[in-house]
Each structure stands twice: as structure tokens, then as C-alpha cells.
Amino acid sequence: MDSAIHPSLRTVEWKDNSVIMIDQTKLPNELVYVKYTDFKDVAEAIRNLIVRGAPAIGVSGAFGLALAALQSKATDRDSLIHDMEEAKKILFETRPTAINLAWGLERIMNVARTAKTVSEIRDAVVREAKITAEEDIQINMRMGKNGSTLFDNNDTIMTHCNAGALATVAYGTALGVIRATRDSGKSIKVIATETRPVMQGSRLTAFELKHDGIDVSLIPDTAVGYSMANGLVSKVIVGADRILATGHVYNKIGTYQVALMAKQHGIPFYVAAPLSTFDMKSTPKDVVIEQRKSTEVTGVAGKKTAPDDIKVINPAFDMTPPELISGIITEAGVAKPPFEESIKKLFAKL
Q1: Which residues contact 134 (CB under 8 A, 6 or more apart)?
Q2: Is 153 annotated as a binding residue?
Q3: Which of 111, 113, 105 is CA-nearest to residue 125?
Q4: pTM value?
Q5: Was 251 annotated as part of a binding site?
């Protein structure tokens, strides 16, 4: 890929009644697009991280459900709704922690339930799925503008995992804020963690920023404390897979320890996420943390790095409590502590 990541390069899109995705498991070595016409293939793509990042997963789920509506052989409205409900279950079970997936699926089902005929349902869900994708880009750009005011000229910004164009339809959440900060004329540098075990920081974030011409340095996850203690980090920004009404943030495993170290060193820690990432009903005890396969930990790029039959604990996400968070950047503005009050005010703007 010779050009910078920009809105015309789509992580996921709908074309000719098919879902087209960048296969993120091939990056940064190859830029490969995959095409799906079966919702079950979209489900597998979500499960196997061909597409990842909460906003991108939400749109992919919406597209997958639209495919399910087209695939169904139902000839009456109720049968089609039933088939779509079954497809929704399959798609949802792929990544239970990321709330955007449930949001995207329910948004499509709500449209389907209001239509009266089979053909109306199919037309309506395809149209709505396309709208979710277009809205994602505009939301990210508004979020970027809102967040850019929190960052100063000559800041060095640490980020964890990938919350960029590749985690969304285009532009990005945390990296969208970084892009908007740079585009506002400020000089910034970025420190990206490699983000083991699947290396989204080194494979995806470093890839994106390098191709956008943004000064980026890669560090091992174990060098976060060193970087902060030696004055190399001005601020931190990450994305999120789910945010509760209380301000508890669920994001890629390792986010919690980055936030703890930022607090220890007096470094502001920001989260960037669209309002679709907020779960206003659940409490921390309700949230299921996805546990992923052991082979992600016992080997790297297909090469074994651990003893046979070793026990593995491989959670995909952790929870960062609100007391460690300086602000949550959204398309409707920035929520500041106390979060229960400020988050409610953001939703009141809708």
C-alpha cells in the first residue's frame, strides 16, 4: 500500500450484494481484500480477526445480517424475521465483549421488524447497513476534532492496540484523534505498544501511522513503564470495545496496566469511542470477557515458543476503572469525571 490510510480506503464495505473486507491477519506484509456473500463467512471473519476493532465489527455485523436477509429462502415476512434472528445469534456469539456488534445487529433487526414484506425487509436492511458504514466515518471525524483540543504541540502520545482506520470503516477513533491533532497543525509523535499476543500495535497501528507520515516508535508492551518513567510520554489515548454508564472501559488486554502506570506518572489517559460503544444497562459483573485460543500465546507467526501442553490464560480484554481515566472522547463531546453525570449529558445531546 503506497498511500496513506484515508476515508476512501475502506476496512469493510458493501458492494454488489457482497461484503468486502481487508484481511487484517495478512497485514503489514500484504494488503489483501476478501469477499463474502454468506453471513456465516462474515461471522468467521469476525471470530478469526480478519476484521477487528469495535466500530468495524459493528458495521460488519450489520452487513452480515443484511447478507442473511438476502440469503434466506423465506417467502413470507415472519419466516424471514425468524431466519434473521437465527443469523443474529450466530453473528453475536463471535465476539461477545464488543458492544458495537450487538448495537449493529439490533439496529438492523429494528429496521427489519418495521418493514411489512419480504422485499421491503431486504431493501431496508441493506440500505440501513450501508448507512451505518457511512455514519461511522463522519462520527470518527467529529470525534477526532473534539479530541484534538486535548493534545498540545510537541506532545508524544502513547497508544495501545489498534484504534485506527483498520478498527473502523475508515479514519479511526483513538488514531482519528491523533490524525485530527496532526491535521490541526500541531507537531506530534506517537509511541505504539506492540500489543501481544496478536500484535495489533506493531502490525496495524505502526503500519497505519507510518503510511500517514506520522512519527511513530514501536515498543514492547513491557516497556510502557520505562517510557513513562523516563519522560517519553506526554499523554495516552486508546479506543474501547465497551464503555459502561459508570465510565468503566473495556478494551484490549493490557489497557488496564497502561492506565495504572499513566496514573502513577501523572500522565493524562484518554479513551476515544463513539456513543455506539456505550452500554448504558450493564454493570461490570454483567460483562463477559472473551477468552481466546491458547495458540495465540504459545507461538508467534506459526512458530512454537512455549512447551507442549502448557496451561494458558488468554483474555482478549480487561477493564479500566473510571478513576484512572482523564476523559472519554466521543462524537458528541468529551466526558470528564464524574462520568455518570457527563456521559448522560452526552446522550442528552442526541
Answers
A1: 169
A2: no
A3: 111
A4: 0.91
A5: yes
Residue-range domains of the chain with CATH: 12-140 (1.20.120.420), 141-348 (3.40.50.10470)
Q: Looking at this protein, which amino acid is placed at residue 77?
A: R
Say if residue 182 carries a ligand binding annotation: no
Strands, E assignment, the chain: 12-15, 18-22, 33-36, 156-159, 189-193, 215-219, 235-238, 242-244, 249-252, 269-272, 278-279, 299-300, 303-304, 317-320, 327-330, 333-335
pLDDT above 60: residue 12? yes
179 is in an annotated binding site: no
Q: What percentage of the chain has pLDDT greater than the value 70? A: 97
- Catalytic-labelled residue, pool 241, 308, 309, 318: 241
Residue 192 annotated as binding site: no
pLDDT tens digits, one per residue of 298-338 = 998 889 999 999 999 999 999 999 999 999 999 999 999 99
Sequence letter at residue 256: Y
pLDDT higher than threshold 60 for residue 159: yes
Q: First CA to last CA across the chain, in angstroms? A: 38
Summarised one tens digit per residue, pLDDT across range 25-58 is: 999 999 899 999 999 999 999 999 999 999 999 9
Q: Is 241 a catalytic residue?
A: yes
